[in-house]
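Record type: ASSEMBLY
Status: queued
Input:
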Amino acid sequence: MAPVSIKGLKKRFGSLEVVKGIDIDIADGEFVVLVGPSGCGKSTLLRMLAGLENISDGEIRIGSKVVNDLPPKDRDIAMVFQNYALYPHMKVADNMGFSLKLKKMSKADIAPRVDRAADILGLRQLLDRYPRQLSGGQRQRVAMGRAIVRAPQVFLFDEPLSNLDAKLRVAMRAEIKALHQKLKTTTVYVTHDQIEAMTMADKIVVMRDGVVEQIGTPLELYDRPANLFVAGFIGSPSMNQIRGTVRGGAFETTGGVCLPLSGAPKTADGRVAIYGARPEHFMLSDDGLPAEVTVVEPTGSETHVMANLGTTPVVCVFRERIRAMPGDTIRIAPLPEAAHLFDADSGRAIRAA
Amino acid sequence: MTRFAQPPKLSRRTFLAASAGAASALYTPAIRAQGAVTLRLMNTETAIASIEAMKKIVADYKALTGVTVLFDNVAPADEYPKLSSAMRSGSPYDMAALGFIGDVILLADQNLLVPMNELVDKYQWGPKILFPYKGNKYWLPYDYNFCMIYYRKDLYSAKGLKVPNNWTEYLGNAEKLKTAEMAGCFHPTGNTGATQWMSTGFHFAEGVQFLDDKLDIVFDKGDNGKKAIAALDYFASLYPNMPAGMAQASWAQSLGLFSSSQVAHATYSGRLIEVLEDKAPDIAAKVGAFPYMDSTGKQKAVTHGYDGFVVMNTPRAEESMKFMTWFAKEKYIDWLHAAPVHQQPCRLDIYDDPRWRSHPMLQKHAELVAEMRGFITRPDMTIASIDTQGPHANLKAAKVFESLAFNEMLQNATLKKMPSAEAVGIAAEKMRRATAT
Amino acid sequence: MKPDATVRIFLLFGIAVTAVLIILPAIQAIVLSFQSVNSFVVAGEWAGLANYRRILGMPEFWRDLWTGTCYAVCTVALQVVLGIGSALILHAPIRGQALFRAIAILPYILPTVVVAISFQWMLDGNVGIVTHWLKALGISNFVWSDSSFAAFATVVGVSVWMWTPFVTICVLASLQTIPDELYAAARVDGAGPFQSFRHVTLPGIRDVLVVVVLLRGIWMFNKFDVIWLMTQGGPLGGTEHLPVLSYHMAFRLYDIGGGAAVATLSLILLTVALVVFFRRFPIET
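Status: finished
Output:
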């Protein structure tokens, strides 16, 4: 276990800069998720951490050691890949013990470590199988087992669950998290799935176009997104973003509907801005604003309603079951204390000082 | 051996006739197909001039008789497989040009050839060309393909050399003419027919026999064996004067090296003159030829590579024979003129035929042509080839030829430096094994 | 037409073609090997095992079997090693990759006769360009056809030159199926270039290699044209293998039964070798 520190990290492919100066501090034992849309540079960053990509500029430290020029094997890391990357001709046990074998460790020393990792992951019965004889979830577990066996300072996960079906993904998510809680190894986990990020991370790093948009705990990002991008990326369904103007402590949409605000800074008054309201932060209320229902999606536990607030389409999520039909008018009220305000030009959050 | 009592039943013609008959009820003009004769000829002279000459000959025959002669050109090495597979497939050749006596014997043995005695007996022939087999003459020969040794008159006179009469003289000439750029003589040792043709002459001149009158292998026996050893010793002594790569050399190298002045003596038939006239006319004017010679200067030899036409035993044999008769009378010279110096006539009347003699190449090289004709008539001349050894045409000699025993003997003597006595013994054993079946 | 009827018709067609073009001739060759026959035209006489007895007693047979085996093993081994090597080079992302790939395949698409004659001329002891170069290097007496070993090495070299591209193409195709992730995983696990090759590349192309070695092994063991064109088995039998022996007996010595027996023995030996090979290297599914 070791802290990881990334400073001013850049990656260029020819003239194309894909990582544009990134600073992240990862505490010892922390579970950090790098999240962002595809092409944001998160996988490249991970591969630089692993030593699979050269570093164009900046510095990476693992523990106290600068690892910029160290080959992967000397960085004391282990990596789990999206497609598992199991050696197809090796049995599970050999796959897991391969790195130790390359370190010239004796068979007698390798076996107990493989067994221990297999026990942790419930792979005991599978040790003599070949990867092709395993299901996707089992393969993923073997890939993790291969990482565990090495007892590295840092685990690196590169979208490890994206090839699994939805149900298995939820289960594996929990398993990885439980594993982390058991082993307490510093972990850097890359995903494009914000739910994975939210559910697993101690700390989320949201990236876009090679830069960090925000770093924080899941709830910090949810509650206080630093900008429109983070606001839109975190949370599902996405935050409603409504264009308009701040007027006298309230928000007037371009369609002329007035939405409540609480604690908007005085300086914001009169500014063109974006009003952010999460779907789950709309309440059904007789005092609410009238909205015409266009689509109703019951999910069982909650109901997703798409409605037009004046001319502005919004998505609302209610815990209640709603009988409204498309065409009906419902009355909804956003929670003023949960509303967000963003600068229309920069996209930055506008907050009271 | 089980023989074919009858020629193949369903021939092309009977098939044609049958289908024509069947069709005639519906389509009357098809009846004419019944009268039209088509003959198939396998040609093994694959030089372009020969193919062109044959085209002209069959066109003339068609114009004259209405008979169509279709011909295919087949490499001589493939003549036997090609002939037999054509027969097997039900569309046999009616005539063929063959160049290997073993093939003729095998076909005759299987009753697949028609004797040509009547046609052949019309003409006068040179020695060692008819190969009568079991009393019949199965082919109409057209050339000898004598292999002789060529020399450069200019080089000879520059060094004051004379045409060699015995082994020592020939070796001496080769040694004297040898320079860094030019080898002394050319006698291949590889596993091709070029070796049997170009490198057996010293043995034959020395009087070596491969088979005795009872067709036993006597190559290593008694006096004959001593001669074989002596001739091999002599060959080995010539070897250092030869160009590199004799174990791979073939016909083409002889032509190439001689025409580019890289070897002082070459071995070939008259073809060499034709090639020189084409590629190196300045050298062509300066060459002469002499036969292989023995150790004492008493006897000479040339090896032959005879060719002739056979008529196959098909339902069209009578038509084929008519064509061959016409060909022998009218077109024989045209055919020879396709390769005028190379195809040395074996029919004696040709030499006096003004039509043959008038060919410009034969006029130009009259001296050489006279020398070549002398090979047929000179009393001190042996005409021989391994495959025509023995008292009469026989298959054993053909097998001795194809066993490549002689070729390997030369390789043993030259590449392995094996003592000649041992190499002769090994060769004779190999000949015996090859002829055991 | 019902789909299974279509399948059946195609299958029947395939069986018919195989039977007519492969099985019948093979059976006929085997039948001929038990006969004393010197022509394809007439029926031979039943000879029992006489041909086999005769051939097994021929020193040439054993020599040619050995030569042919050496030829097959040497050519296949070199083709595989060079084929993998060139495939790795062509697999690397280099400028002009498509061009290099096209060039690398060239020898394979040239007709054998062209290759054989070209090499014969290049190696000709008098006018060959190679001879010329060797002379410039001070080696003036090398004539490839003058020793059995040099001739053998030459036909091996020409065969390797000619048929390595087949291995290259197969291996290259197979290399492209190995995911990059596997190489990344190996690097993280601590594998160097050699270990990556040993543990990722080689297992990744193994199945293709098994098939390639199998096919090339059969082809090289039966390869006739290049040897016949270049050496006719010489000098001194140094390059003579069973196909040349069989051809020589059947088509030159009028010993079709003997030639067929050589071919049949060759077929049996090859079949045994294949069975052993498959036992040792099963193709995983």
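Annotation: The longest helix of chain C spans residues 59-91.
Annotation: The CA atoms of residues 224 and 243 of chain C lie 6 Å apart.
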